[in-house]
Amino acid sequence: MKVLDLFQGIGTMFAQEPEIVIFRIVLIFLGFLLVYLGKKGTLEPLIMIPMGFGMSAINTGVLFMENNQIGNLIINPLLTSTDDLMKYMQINFLQPIYTLTFSNGLIACLVFMGIGILCDIGYVLAHPFISMTIALFAELGTIATYPLAKLMGLSDGAAAAVSIIGGADGPMVLFASLKLAPEYFVPISIVAYLYLSLTYGGYPYLIKLLIPKELRGKVVVDTKPKHNITSNEKLIFAVIANAVLCLLFPVAAPLFLSFFLGIAIRESGITKYIKLIEDGFLYFATFFLGLMLGVLCDASTLLNPDVLKLLVLGMVALALSGIGGIIGGYVIYFIRGKNFNPVIGIAGVSCVPSTAKVAQKEVQKVNMSSFILDYALGANICGVITTAIITAIYITLLQ
Length: 399
Known about the structure:
The chain has helices at 3-6, 8-11, 18-40, 45-60, 82-88, 95-102, 106-118, 122-126, 128-137, 140-151, 156-163, 170-180, 185-196, 199-210, 213-216, 231-248, 253-268, 271-295, 299-302, 305-335, 354-366, 373-398, and strands at 63-64, 70-71. It has 399 residues and is an all-alpha fold. Helix 10 runs antiparallel to helix 20.
């Protein structure tokens, strides 16, 4: 027996094309880096640590399969026939998770339900006009990226799916790419989650570039008495909004149902369900989402010339959405007679609650007495709804 037949992870490197081998090595070390950055807190650890492990494992655990084909015993995302699926669900240890929760959008819906549990819709109801205006402006990336993607040669579905990255909502990107561009589902999802983790580090520079220091520290003075939004009002809103949006956009009904059901359970005070979804479903989905994204980073799968286009377009989409949100912040600033902090606009990009935290953090770097988190969370939660609506429109028109 040859030594390379014994250590097949190394042996397969001598049987593959050089560019795949080089890319495998790059992805192995990128996996190490993601684990390190997740542990350090630079990137989101809940996603990045399992993703980094999966990425390094899928590119090291390569072996010779039957008929001397090269593969792995972890996952095969390209299976299409029922016979192959049944066969590999008994061989690859993550194949059942991928087939039964990932490729059908269930894991995206579980995450959305968890987001609903975490969201206080009262922030939206307290400032509905401000929240919706900023959220709509923050959809600039999801809309303006589409024609750019078409100009770069992507299909209608792929262009729409990569545009949704501008909404900075991971489950939405998963759902859109599965519906519109299943052939690009793997790279679009990976690009989305890599970039979403970078919004926390990149958006502060965008804020400093577009908003002068004296405006970043501005205190918002509430001229009207605050109305305490009751749980009943929040529950009524969730029920009606869910019914209306499902009626108008049935293609996205699974997302609307999951999100608003999470809100309804939160406001109903059903503690056992809240604990089940928040501590059970959400962490289960987040863990396997990160791990699955990592093991989908197989060098031979990602070594596609269109991946570079997706990388560029994903960055453009998030940048445009951030710029759009800040423009929305300025619009509200002038509408309210300059009694508003335009930094709040960045929170319209619906990476809940990261962009709202970014806004509050950047404001307090300039003025510790300026508290804008309630406005920011309203725009943030509203951004989830507007991105879901844009996703539904794309799917309805293009599927």
